[in-house]
Amino acid sequence: EGGTPVCRQLIKLLKLLIDQYDSITVALDLDNFVALFAYGGYATRNELAVYALEKVVESSTSLTTTDQVTAFFEIIGPLIKDQEDAGGEEPDEEDFVHEQCLVGRLVALLQADVPDEQDQILSL
């Protein structure tokens, strides 16, 4: 879970990678980048999902291919679909509203150049 030294270092590393690149799309192309987000418990994955989504929305980074969108949806999975390890307690309402507003703003950044690809992206 997020309290272990290894997990804390992984969180730092992933946040550093997100901050280092001008666009999340560069990081999405790195081998194993997306896979690293699966480690840790729900709270860790949720923290990283919110962080990555805030960076994408703040920088107005467009996701233009189905591969980019699919990979990014894996990262923000805790925000867009129920997680088995989420636990039974209700999320903080203020946090939930903030997270869902970010997800809503992300939809405007899903912009493929080709109409068929845009249709595929919006169907994910």
Structural features:
124 residues, mainly alpha, 8 helices, globular
Notes on the protein architecture:
The structure is a single chain. This protein has 124 residues and is an all-alpha fold. It contains eight helices and no strands. It has helices at residues 5-20, 24-28, 33-36, 42-59, 66-75, 77-80, 93-107, 115-122. Helix 1 packs parallel to helix 4 and helix 4 (42-59) packs across helix 7. The N and C termini lie far apart (29 Å).
Could you give a quick summary of the protein structure above?
By secondary structure, the protein is mainly α. The protein contains 8 helices and no strands.
Which residue ranges are poorly predicted, with pLDDT under 50 across at least 5 consecutive positions?
A: none
Provide the gyration radius in Å: 14 Å
Find the structural class using helix and strand composition.
mainly alpha
The N- and C-terminal alpha carbons lie at a distance of 29 Å
- Main β-sheet: number of strands, strand sense, barrel status? none
Give the count of helical stretches.
8
Count of DSSP E strands? 0
What fraction, in percent, of the residue positions are helical?
A: 55-70%
**Backbone shape:** globular
- Strand portion, in percent? under 5%
Oligomer type:
single chain
Order of helices and strands: HHHHHHHH
Look at the structure and give the mean pLDDT.
92
